[in-house]
Records
---
Amino acid sequence: MSQSNNRKNRDTTAAIYPRLSRDDGLDGDSNSIDTQKKLLTKIAKEKGYTNILTFVDDGVSGVTMNRPGFISMMEELKKGYIGAVFVKDLSRLGRNHLEVGKLTEDFFPENDIRLVAVSDGFDSAEGEDDLNPIRHLFNEWYARDISRKQKIRYKVKGNAGEPLSAPPYGYIRNPDNPKFWVIDPEAAAVVKQIFDMSMNGMGTYQIAAQLTDEGVLTPHYYAESKGISRPAKVSGKGPHYWNPNAVNTILNRQEYCGDVINFKTYKKSFKNKTRIENAPEDMAVFKDVHEPVVKRVVWERVQEKRANGKRKRTIRNGDKHIFSGFLICADCGSNLHFHFNQRNPEVTYFSCSNYNSCRGKCTSTHYIRTDFLENVLLQEIRRLTRFVQKYENEFALEVMGDSQQSTIDKQERKKKDLAEMQARDRELDKIFNRMYEDNVSGKIDDERFGRMSSQYTAEQKALTAKIKTLSAELDKHDTIAMTADMFISTVRKYTRAKKLNEHMLSELIERIEVFHTEKIDGINRQRIRIHYNFAGTINIPDELELPEISVQTRKGVTVNYAPQMNFEVSA
C-alpha cells in the first residue's frame, strides 16, 4: 500500500529548473526566470503533474555543474520521489557536454526520470533523440565562443588602463565616470593609519588588534554600511573585528599608490572558474591613474620592510630588542641573533647566526654589544643631522648620485622611446577593438580573427615587457630625486634626539652591517656600515668628527669604534 502511494505520488511530482546566466546572453522578458517558471509550470501541469517543485539558479553559468539550485535538485532526484524534470531547453541543464551527457544518457534513464526540454521539442517519454548529443556539444561550443569573446573584450579594456576589478577599500567609483575610482575619505583615513602603523614597526597582528580596540568597521561591514556589495568571508566575531589577513591585503595593494593593476589572475579554461594568480610580468600596470591614498615612497618602504621578514627576538622581559632584524654580518650576509650573558643578563649582545661555534660557514662571531651599538648609532645619527644642516645641497647630491648631462640625455632618450612604445601599445588596443567589432558583425571570420589576434597579441606582449622595463628605469631615477627631499625631512626630525627608539630606526635605517673586531695599530677596533633608507651608505665629511666610543667586551677586552669612512655609496 505504501509503495503504491509512493509510486502514485512520484507519477504526479515534477521538478522545474529555470536557469539564467549573463554568459548565455539571455536578457529580456522572454528568457527571465519568472517567464521560464510560468512556461515550465504550464507544460508540467498539461502533462499531468500536479505537485511542482521549483529549483532556480539565477546568474550562474551553465559551464559549471557546481550550481546551488542544480545541486539541490539532484539531491532530491536521488531520493526517488520525483518523476520528471522540465527545463526550457537542454542548455539550461548545463553547457558541459560530457556532464550533461551523463545526465541524459545515464542518470535519468537509470532512475526512470522523465526529461522534458520544451524549446528543443524533446520528451524522453516519447523515445530517444539522436540529435541530443549534438545539441550538448553545440551548447558547450556556444559557451566556449562567448568566453573567448569576453576575454578579448576584457583584454581591450584592461590594456587601455580601465580597471577590471571593483575599487578596493579606500576608493569608490567616480560618480562622473564609473569606470575609474576616487578616494573615499573615511576609508582612506584608515588605510593611511595602517601604513603609518606599519612604518612605525607594528606587525599585522598588532595593527589588527589596535583597529579592533578602536572599534573601526572592517572593509566588508564598512561597504555594507554604505550599501555596497562586497563579497567576503565573515568571521562571525562582529563588524569591528579585524583579521590580520585583511591588514596584510591592504599593505600589499599597489593600487593605493594610485595605480591600476589588471590581469592579476586568470582561468585555465572556460570550464574552470578557479582564479589563478598571474606572474608579475603578465600583469598590466598603469601608474598614477587615480589620486594616491599613500605616497609611493611610503608604500615601497613598507614593502621593503615586509620583504625583509624582520622577526624580532624576545629578550628576558618578553619585549623585542629594537636592533633585531636590522643587523647583518658584513662577511656572510646572515642575520645577527640576539643573546644575553647567562651569568649577567644585563649584558646583551648580537652575533652572527652563521658562525655557530665554527659549525657554520662564517669564520668569525661578529660579536657586538648592544650598549656599544646604541651609543655608536646615536652618535652617527647626530653626525648625519649636522651634515644635513650644514651641507644640504651636498647631501642631496650624495643621496641622488651624479646628475651629469650625460645622465640627463639618457633619461630624455628613454622618455622618447617610452612615448613611442606607449603610442604603439594604444594603437594595438584600437586594432583589437576594431577586430572584435568586425568579428561580431561578420566582416572577419573566426579563423582569420584568431590568426590576427595571435599575431598582435604576441607583439603587444613583447611591447608590454619593454614598457615595464623602461618605466621602471625612469621611475627609479624619479624616485631617487623624490626620496632625497623626503629623507632630508625625516633626518631633521631627529636633530635633538637623545635616545634611540624603534620608530627612529624604522624611519632612518634599512640595515646595519657589523664587521668582526680587528686589531689596528695595537688597538681593538670595530666597524659598522649603516645603510639608510633610500640613501644607502653616506660619506660624512671628516670634519664632523665622532667622539671616541669604547666598551669592554665579555672577555674584558676594550673595543673602540672605528667610524665608517671611504665606503662606496650604495644608494
---
Amino acid sequence: MIILGVDYYPEQWDRSMWEQDITRMEQLGVHAVRIGEFAWSRLEPKDGVFDFAWLDDAIALIAAHGMQVILGTPTNCPPMWLFESHPETLQCESDGTRTHPGIRGHRCMTSPVFRSYAARIIRELAKRYAGRPEVMGWQIDNELESNHCTCSACAKSFRSWLQQKYRTLEDLNHAWGTAAWSGEFSAWTQITPYITSRVNHTDWFNPAYMLDYERFAAWSLTDYVRFQCGLIREYDPHAVITTNSCFGINLPDFHQEFEPLDVAGYDNYPPVILPEDHEEFYSNAFALDFVRGFKQKNFWILEQLGGPMGCWRPISPAMEPGMLEGYAMQAVSHGADLVSFFRWRTAVSGAEMFCYGLLDHDSARNRRLEELEHFSHRLALIPNLSETSVQSQVAMLYSADQEFSFKTQSQSDGFAYWTQLRLFHEACMNLGVNIDIIPARESIDRYQVVIVPSFFVRDPDLAGRLEKFTREGGTVIVTTRSGVKDEHGNCLLGEPLPGPFRRLCGCFVSETDAIGKAHQRLQSEHGGSFSITSWCDLLSLEGAEPVAVYMDRFYAGVPAITVNAFGRGQAYYVGTVGEKAMYRSLLLEIFRSRRMKVMDFLPDGVESTVRSGIGKDFRFFFNNTLAAKTFTLHRQKVFLQPMEMKILTRTGQWI
C-alpha cells in the first residue's frame, strides 16, 4: 500500500478544530499525519518545563481515526528562551555575524550548548513515544543543509576535522598548494571557515581549501544526523528514522547524510509555472530519481506540493487542473512509497501564511481536495504497488565533490554540473528507460550503461572500475571537464585531459574553448546537426572513432564526440554541452545497440517509468506539460490530458 499523508500543525490551531480536521483526513483516505517538527516552544515552554499533554491528545485523536504519525524532532526552531540564555547557540552567517533569532533553522548544529538542550528534548520525546504503534516513523529536524555556520565552535570543529585528515600542517599546506599567494599556514589557529565579508569575491579563496571546507560542512551535518539518530535509538533500536531533504543553497553530501537513516525523505515542490522554452529543465523527475539513489531503494515524500506557493517569493498562480494529482503520481512512479501533502491547513500567521496547503483560509472544500480524493481512490486500486520498485539498466554517477568544486570555480558562463546530469536524465525519461542516480563509490556491475558526467575531481579508484566494467561488456559515457583535478582539488600535472579516463576513452583533449553562452553546431556521424554551447573540447583520437564533429570556428571538422572499443564494451566521450535532442539521439543509438527496450515514440514532455516486482509491472506515462498529448502504443492510441498520469499493468489494464 502506498501511504497517503498530510502535514499538520495542531499547536497552531484551536483544539476545537482538531476533531473536524482529523475526521476529514480519515474520510480522504489519509494513513499518516506528519507533526511536531516546529513545536519546541510548545513542548518546552520554559527551560526544563515540559508539556506533552497537547501532543498526547493530538496523537491519540489521530490514532482513534485509524491513522499513524510521523513525529519530528523540533530542533530546527529552538525556543526564544534558549537564545536569550545562550546567544552562542545562534549560528553565524557567512559574513561572520550572528543570525537574527526568529527565523527557522537558526541554531548552530555544532554548538555543545545547543546539542545539550537538543539531546534533552529529543530524549523526552523518545522516552514518551518510541516504540508506540501510533508512531510509524521519526523525522530529524527539518530541511537540513550543509553546515556553513562560521561561529567559534564550528571553526574549532573544522580545525579538528583537518587535523584528523592531514595530521601535520606541512601535509595540509602541500595538499592545498598554499604556496600560491603566500597562503601557507604556520599555525592551526590561522585556519577558519571562509568568511565572505573579508574578501570581495568568494572565488578568490584557495579552491583546495574551499573543497575541504565543503567536505567538512557536509561531514558536520552528517555528524548532527548521527547525533539525533543515536538519541532516538537509545529508546527504540528499531525506529524508522528519516529527514526531509531539500535542494537549498548549501547542498550536503546527500549519500553521506542519509547513511545513518533508514529511508530517504524529500520535500517535493514541482513548479506551478511551466516554462515556455523547450530547453529549460522543470521536471522534478530528476530530483525524485536522485533522492531514490540516496539509499538506492524506495523513499518517502514528507512534503508534497499542496497548493500555490508563496512566502519566499510572490504568490504563484493557481495550480492547473490535474497538477496536484499528476505531480503526486509522478513521485510514486519514481519510487515514493509515502506521499505526505504540505499542508493540511494554510497557516493564518507566520511567514508561510501565503504558502497554500490543501485547505485555504476559508476552510471550504476546493478543487485541490477533490484531486487528492481522486488520487487516494486510484492508489486504492493498486494495493500491491508498494511491493514494486524502480529497477534500472542505466546508472548515472553523482559525486558531491564535483558539485562542491564547480560551485567554487565556474568553468564558463552558463556551465553547470547539474545541467550535465539533467540532460542525460531527461533523455532517459522521454525514451521510457529507467535510470538510477547513484554515488560514484557504489558498485556498477548490475548495469548495462553507466554515465559519468563532468567528473572534475578525481576519484583514485573510479577509472579502473570503469575500465573493468567496459572490458566486460558495459557501455560508459564520460563527458567534458572530467579528470581535471586531483582528489585535493588541484589541477593534474603532465597528462592531457580527460586524465585518468584517457585510456578508456581512446582520445585526449588537445585544446579547449570555453564558449560560454555562445551557440555553435556539431554534425553527427549518424546524420543531423545539433546546437551546442558552454564548452568545446577539441579531441585527438588514440583508437577512438568520431561520433560527431564541430561545424564552426577554427576547429570545424574536429571530433566533438567519440566512441572507443574497449574489451567487449564501448566508451563514449562527449566533449561539449548540447541541446536536449543531442542527448536523446546519442542515448537512443546506444540503447538500440544494446537491444534495450526504448519508447522512441513518446511526444516531447511525456515521461515514462516502470515499477516492477515479483509477477507484476506497472508502466507509468506522465504528461508533464500543459498541452494534450497523444501517441500509439501496441497499435492503440493513448491520449493524455495536461498533467495526466496513466498506468498500464502487465496484463494490459489501464488504471
---
Amino acid sequence: MTDVVERQDEGAFRGPWPDVDIPDLAYAGYVLAGAAARGDKPALIDGPSGRTITYAGLAAAVERVAAGLAARGFAKGDVFAILLPNVPEYPLAFYGVAAAGGINTTVNPLYTEDELARQLTDAKARFLLAAGPFAAKAMAAAKRAGVEEVFVLGEPDADGATPFSELLAGGGQPPAVAIDPEDDLVALPYSSGTTGLPKGVMLTHRNLVANIAQSEPVLTTVEDDVVLAILPFFHIYGLTVVMGMALRVGATLVTMPRFDLEEFLRLHAEHRVSRGFLAPPLMLALAKHPLVAKYDLSAMRAITSGAAPLSAELEAAVAERLDCFAAQGYGMTEASPVLTGSPADDTQVKHGSAGQVLPNTEAKVVDPETDRVLGRGEIGELCFRGPQVMRGYLGQPEATEEMLRGGWLHTGDLGYFDADGFAFVVDRVKELIKFKGMQVAPAELEAVLLSHEAVADAAVIRVPDEEAGEVPKAFVVKAEGAEIGPDELMAYVAERVAPHKRVRQVEFIDAIPKAASGKILRRVLMAQEAEAPA
C-alpha cells in the first residue's frame, strides 16, 4: 500500500496523492471551460426520449439562461430554487444561475408543499423552477414563501407560471459578474448535519471547484466515459460527482428522471455506460436481481458507491457479476461532498473501505466525548479539513460552530483509519437516518407525529434494513384514552413528508427515555432495539 504522510503534531494525516492546483475560478466557467470547443459531442441525453443536448448547445443555453435571469433583475447573491428530477435542463438552469452570480438551492422534487415552502422561505428564494407535474405544488409553496416568479418545464398548467422556454429564449449577453470564488456562494443544498432539522449548507464557488479538482485524480471519470445520472442532481453526490465532474471532463451524461430497474439496465446497455456512481441499494440490485442477466453491461469499467457504507462482500459480488472494478468513496453535503475515494485500480484499493483521503485534505479521528485525538485502528469520530468544506449553515451560527469546531469538520460518523490510511465507517455519532442514502432527520418525523392528537410523545430511531440500509422506526406514547394503530400513524406521517422520510415501523411504549435536560435518549432506544428478539 502507498505510504501516508503523517502530521504527528496534530494527529492529522493525508492520503497518498499529491496536492492539486485549485484554480481561482467561478464554478460555471470552470466546469464548462471546454464545452464550446467540444461542439457536437453529446453532453446530455434524456434517457427516456433520447433527446440530446450537445456541448456547444449546453454552453450557449447556459449563457441564455444567465442573460434571461439578468433581464428579469436577478442579481448576484439572489437565490434560485430548482425543483426538477434528473433532466437535461437541470445543468442548464444550475450553471445559468451560477454564471449570473446567483445561488442555487436544490430541492427534492418529492417534497410536500409544506417541506418545499419551508426550504424556499429559509433560503429566501427569489425564483423557482419546477417540472410540469410539480407545478401546482410549486405555485402554492412559492406563494407562501414570497417567491417572485415560478418557471415550469413545458407548458404550465398552473396559472401564473412562466414557461422555462421564455427564460431560455431571452436574447442579449449574459451579465458580467465579478465573482469572488472564495467568498461567494453558488449552491445551497439542505442537510440535517449531525442532528436536527435540515439546514442550508453554504457552498462557495471555490468549494465546488476544489472538490472536482481534488476528485479527478482519484475517481477518474474521463472524456470517453458515458455516465448514467441516476443519482439525483438535487443531492450533492449527484450534483458534484456526477453532473459537475462529468461535464468538466467532457463525458456524456444520460439522465434518468425516475428510477426503474429495467429502464436503468436498458439504458446501460443501449448507451454503453462505462462509469458508474451509485448508492448501496443499486449495488444490491446489481449483485442479486435476476433482471441484470438479461442486459449487456460489458461496457462498464468502474463503479464507485457512496452515500452509505457497503460491505466488501457486496462490492465483490458486483465486480464479479459485471466484470468491472467496484469500490467506495465517502463524503457529506458539508464537504461538497467528497472526502475520501478509491481509484479504479485493484492494486491501489482495499475493498470494504471508503478509500483514502483526497488531495489537499487532512483527516483525524477523535474521541466523540472529549475530542482527544486517537491513533490508527482506534474507532472515533471522523474529522476533516480542506478547501471543499462548507462556509457554514445559513443563519445557523451555533450549528456552524458545533460542526466546524476547532477548524475541523466533525462528520458525526464513527470510523477508523487503518495502518495504510484507508478509512472504514462503522457507525454514527449523529442521529441521522440514511434511507437509500437520503437523509432523514428524526426530529422532523417526531414533530409530525406529535401533531397527531392521539400521540402524547414520540421518538424516532434508525433500524437496519437490507434494501434501504436504514429505515425510520417510531416509538410512540399514546395520549390518554386514544385508540390508534401503527398503520394509521404511518399513513398520517406519509401524507405529510416526502416518500423517503416515511416511518416504516411503529412501536407503542409507556414513556420515551429522556435526559434531565429533556433531550430524547435515542441511544437507549437503539440499544433496546438491538437486544430485542428478531
